[in-house]
Design goal:
The strands form 3 sheets. The protein has a 7-stranded mixed β-sheet, sandwiched between helices. A 3-stranded antiparallel β-sheet has the order 8-9-10. A two-stranded antiparallel ribbon has the order 1-2. By secondary structure, it is an alpha/beta fold. It is globular, with a radius of gyration of 19 Å. The chain is about 30% helix and about 25% strand. The chain has helices at about 20-30, 95-100, 125-140, 160-175, 195, 205, 210, 225-230, 240-250, 255-260, 285, 330-345; strands at about 1-15, 40-55, 55-60, 70-75, 105-110, 155-160, 180-185, 200-205, 220, 255, 275-280, 310-320. The protein is built from 12 helices and 12 strands.
Length: about 350
């Protein structure tokens, strides 16, 4: 466990805690209504809090060749195992590919997920707090303040989905903290999230009581593996056993995370490192099911947010859905990511 203490803005929700999934679903219906106008927050204030963050540090077998550390940040309803999925045989480990390419990795459970602290899902587990945690972890790693982790010449960041939002926002807030970033499963376009959010009104404590029964009511999830498939996977490009296992071991996300993702600053105008947006061909959450023209065409938002970078590239991995790492064709994406870093001297 890595102890972190951070100060961040907290937006106080203006609604009472959900009593059950009926109330949670009704609230999501309300905020997704076409003419919804009322803010879900009553005020904003800075908070200082301490958390325990579960992390996993890996080095290649020939450690002296590792000059660069990759910090890996997972998305919603996952944990750090997204980067090293070994519950089903196959090429599902981004970490193993990075190690084979000579990189060290640091993956962690975001706040509220996996073995990390399960904080208040309404007012604490929000995007600004999670960004502050990523910034603090990066500083600790850069200056050797995490026991058992080496200091590396270069530090780069890779995110998936919500983790990509945090990765993007990190270099907007602290442009010198990263030497290069790869947001995956992300497009800076939030207009396609309605189908995903419409499936997520289930209290996690009711959906999986044996595993998640102790979670507060603001921790939410979707109903079953078919909702999971709709949001994250593209048939027939995945092993159904992977979907079954992922659903059985899913984590929840918080209503605070969902409501605050757009308050982050994504305009990284002072970041000068290289950027690769690595998208899934069939991403429903950030591309409406087809990333061609959204991530790389006239509707692309991302390029304008990085005006000073040394290299900006876009790559669309074929035959994968939003959860790129969980598809048969995932290893191709791993190679693209590591080759991008190497091509930029990282």
């Amino acid at each position: 466990m890595v102890p972190v203490t951070v100060t961040a803005q907290s937006l106080t929700v203006a609604f009472p805690p959900f009593k059950d999934s009926y109330q949670a679903t009704a609230f999501i219906q309300e905020v997704l209504t076409r003419d919804a106008s009322e803010t879900p927050f009553s005020d904003a204030k800075n908070i200082t809090d301490s958390f325990s963050i579960s992390a996993h540090y890996c080095v290649p077998s020939v450690q002296e060749t590792s000059k660069t550390l990759q910090i890996l940040t997972h998305g919603l309803s996952s944990d750090k195992s997204y980067w090293d999925f070994t519950r089903v045989a196959g090429n599902y480990s981004f970490i193993q590919a990075a190690l084979a390419a000579g990189y060290s990795t640091f993956s962690y459970d975001r706040l509220g997920n996996g073995q990390s602290t399960k904080a208040d899902p309404y007012n604490i587990v929000q995007a600004p707090t999670e960004l502050a945690i990523l910034i603090e972890l990066t500083k600790k790693l850069r200056f050797g303040h995490i026991d058992g982790c080496d200091v590396h010449e270069k530090v780069v960041h890779v995110g998936h989905s919500y983790g990509s939002e945090l990765t993007n926002s990190l270099v907007a807030a602290e442009p010198t903290l990263s030497d290069g970033i790869i947001p995956t499963g992300f497009s800076n376009n939030f207009t396609f999230q309605v189908p995903f959010l419409s499936t997520t009104g289930h209290l996690a404590s009711e959906n999986q009581p044996a595993r998640l029964g102790a979670l507060a009511s603001g921790y939410l999830t979707w109903a079953d593996k078919y909702n999971n498939q709709f949001n994250f996977m593209q048939y027939p490009y995945f092993d159904p056993l992977v979907l079954t296992v992922v659903e059985a071991n899913k984590w929840a996300f918080t209503i605070g995370e969902v409501l605050t993702q757009t308050v982050l600053d994504y305009a990284a105008v002072k970041f000068t490192g290289p950027v690769l947006f690595l998208a899934a061909q069939y991403d429903h959450i950030f591309c409406g099911g087809d990333c061609s023209g959204i991530i790389d065409g006239p509707y692309s938002i991302s390029r304008r947010l990085f005006p000073a970078v040394s290299d900006f590239e876009v790559y669309i991995q074929p035959n994968v859905g939003h959860a790129i790492n969980l598809h048969y064709n995932s290893s191709g994406a791993y190679a693209v990511a590591n080759d991008f870093f190497k091509g930029n001297g990282l």
